[in-house]
Amino acid sequence: MQPCSGRVTQTLRALVLIIIVACATATPQTPPGSGRPAPATVDQAGVSPADVHFMIGMIHHHAQAVLMAGWAPSHDASPALRALCERIAVGQRDEIALMQRWLRDRHQTVPDADVSSGHAMPGTSHSMLMPGMLTPEQLAQLDSARGPEFDRLFLLFMIQHHRGALAMVRELVDTPGAARDGPLFQIASDVSADQTTEIDRMTRMLAALSQPSQRSPQ
């Protein structure tokens, strides 16, 4: 089954790349006053303010996901959810490192992604929340849950979280002049492909939680 899964993932990534290329290279036909983003100013390195905003915002976004996933062992999550959380934590830590390096190489401010401070981590105030991020109240609700209730809330909240990341990618590629940098383009496409796949997996896991237990007839 692994080879088939790999081909599916590769196909999904290819489709995402095609969609992002089409969005990023299309010439906008926007009438005046339509409210669409103004063209971004691109520097000599081909980096726009929208690119920098996306990378900084996604670092905060990923850091919250890593925090949430890290609670699985101490909150009595099921083995299946623990495995998912481990995958999310590893994958998003790797992407955080890539995004920090991208910013550093372009002499931009590099935000801290340390989640050890818990609810005080950067990006958790209402005024700084990226799309889909949990509010402090939602984080506290998840932190107080245990066992099956933790599984249920985690899946609900992480689906919300992942959908927010997809919205951030769409906003990036809809901004004229943005997403032209090759490494950033690759990161954005990976975020879109990986989190689309994980949303599908989490939706199925959530549906399974709501199914009544199948008992053998007496």
Give an overview in words:
The chain is mostly helical. Helix content is 63%, strand content 0%. It is built from six helices and no strands. The chain has helices spanning 2-25, 49-70, 79-105, 136-144, 147-173, 182-209. The longest helix is centred in the C-terminal third of the chain and has 28 residues, at 182-209. It is elongated and about 55 Å long. The model is unreliable at 1-9, 14-40, 117-127 and 214-218 (pLDDT under 50).
Number of contiguous helices: 6
What is the arithmetic mean of pLDDT?
A: 81
Percent of residues in helical segments?
Answer: 55-70%
Amino-to-carboxy terminus distance: 35 Å
Task: Write the H/E string, N to C.
Answer: HHHHHH
Main structural class: mainly alpha
List unreliable stretches of 5+ residues. Answer: 1-9, 14-40, 117-127, 214-218
- List how many beta strands DSSP finds: 0
Q: Summed up, what is this model?
A:
Helices cover 63% and strands 0% of the residues. It contains six helices and no strands.
Features:
disordered C terminus; single chain; 218 residues; elongated; 0% strand
